[in-house]
Amino acid sequence: MIHVVAIITAKSGQRAQVLEAFAANRPAVLAEAGCIEYVATIDAAGMPPSRGTFGDDTFVVVEKWETLDALKAHAVAPHMAAYGAKTKEMVESRVIHVLSPV
After folding, report:
1. Which is deepest, 38, 42, 69, 92, by most CB within 10 Å?
2. What is the pLDDT of residues 14-36, one digit of tens each?
3. Inter-helix orientation angle 78-87/15-30, to 10°
4. How far is it, in rounded angstroms, from Cα 9 to Cα 87?
């Protein structure tokens, strides 16, 4: 299994719009061969800000894939290209961590 943690920071005040596009694209991702989990997460409400807090403009996508090949196919899927084009001007940065369980 492959785990992915993608940290997406939207331009100031645009996280909600990026999350709307993410939500619209999510069913297509979940239908991909090998997709186990694909969910956007934000800082838990009620927690005080800390060095581990992402803040109001950032969300974290938690993904699980059956294989690395499934993840590679996801990366080049047409719906991902469309999502990237739609959100390109709204995103400040994207950091993607691809991990294997030990």
Report:
1. 38
2. 999 999 999 999 999 999 999 99
3. 180
4. 11
Q: Write out the residue range of the structural domain in which residue 88 sits.
A: 2-99
Other CB atoms within 10 A of residue 24 CB? 13
Segment (H or E) for 65:
strand 58-65
For every residue of 11-46, which 3-state class applies, written as one string? CCCCHHHHHHHHHHHHHHHHCCCCEEEEEEECCCCC
* pLDDT tens digits, one per residue of 50-95: 888 899 999 999 999 999 999 999 999 999 999 999 999 999 999 9
How many domains is the chain built from?
Answer: 1
Show the tokens assigned to 35. 């997709």
pTM to 2 decimal places: 0.93
Q: What CATH number does the domain containing 75 carry?
A: 3.30.70.100
